[in-house]
Amino acid sequence: PGRMADWVSAVQDGAEISLYVHVPFCRKLCWFCACRTQGTATAKPLNAYLDTLHREIALLRGRLPGGVRLSRLHWGGGTPTLLSPDRIAALAGLILETTPLAPGAEFSIEIDPNEIDGPRMDALAAVGVNRASIGVQDFDPEIQATSGRAQSFAITKVAVDGLRQRGIDSLNIDLLYGLPHQTNERIGDSVQKVLSLGPDRVALYGYAHVPWMARRQALIPAEALPVPEARLKLYDTARQLFVWDGYDEIGIDHFARPSDGLAIAARNGTLRRNFQGYTDDQADTLIGLGASAISRFPQGYAQNNPATSHYRAAVERGDFATTRGHVMTAQDSLRGDMIAELMCAFRFCFDDIAKRHDIPKAEIARHAAEVAEAFPGVVALTRNSLE
């Protein structure tokens, strides 16, 4: 907690940062999900959690230098749209009093179409939300039944139309490949339905079956999961449909309209990747609020306690709820930079990396040669780049 506090205090006056707010509650837990979430049938635990979140924001305000603004504000979960309209207004108001949005900032929220209505959409628009991320995963009824998530295309379209009517017209949709009983035909049908909604971006993630980490996944029949070769075909089926419809491929698992900021960043070399996926956000600092939330600073990483009870106890003592982290060494930063370049652009230039880290080009070339030797036929090595 002390190091986290020091890193927050070290943010430069007038800097632009990103802020992530984690709301770890859902009305019903989806079996495929491995996120830090818990189910609740009432608002009582959610309201108690939000009271603690307000205290954590006050801790942040006491440490952040003046003049700091937000380039990105994202509410994730869980299901942030479980919040009532008045709670949405109160939470957003407190955050923006602490760190106002910078010009051109993005305020986004994850939405479950099963947990959104007109008053909550009105509240989101009123506080300045301008991007929505809508979870779909797959529209096929059998796949949904086997994955523990029921969500019709009709209810999804109602949410999309309602958001756009309120001026929240920048939309991202999440899909999963590798789900039980998924076939090329079924994922193709789901993608066609998604395309009819006209999202600006799509995240196409591979389902990771890790029941030893996420116990609810034990409810998913492992024998119904596609084998690796079939998973690859599922991804390629979806990929072709997005490309044919005019989307740009972004990195390893995103697609975006050519006019979207993500596609522009990919073209001009400023694409980045964080815990939420690919982003065009250029902020060096991302602060995570809430149980299990991860923060990234130039100095390293810090994570809040994942258990809501322990998280609440720490904050109510007047401490940040940090329970683990990693202080970046010069080698960590160097390797992280090379990995990020490969993730975002599939290549890196030795000269660029050497200049950014003020080290000899030969050291970068040595690292690249090790990669080329470890992955023959997968990478191409030149005198000044690894691709």
Strand proportion: 15-25%
DSSP summary, beta strand count: 18
Structural class call reads: alpha/beta
- What is the topology, as strand order, of the major beta sheet? 9-10-8-7-6-5-4-1-13
**Number of alpha- plus pi-helical segments:** 13
What's the main sheet like?
Answer: 9 strands, mixed
State the separation between the terminal residues, measured CA to CA: 40 Å
Q: Percent of residues in helical segments?
A: 40-55%
* Dominant shape: globular
Radius of gyration: 21 Å
Mean pLDDT: 95
Low-confidence stretches: none
Description:
With 387 residues, the protein is an alpha/beta fold. It has 13 helices and 18 strands. A 9-stranded mixed sheet has the order 9-10-8-7-6-5-4-1-13, sandwiched between helices. A hairpin with a 3-residue loop joins strand 9 and strand 10 (254-256). It is globular and about 60 Å long. The model has no long low-confidence stretch (mean pLDDT 95).
Distinctive features:
387 residues, 18 strands
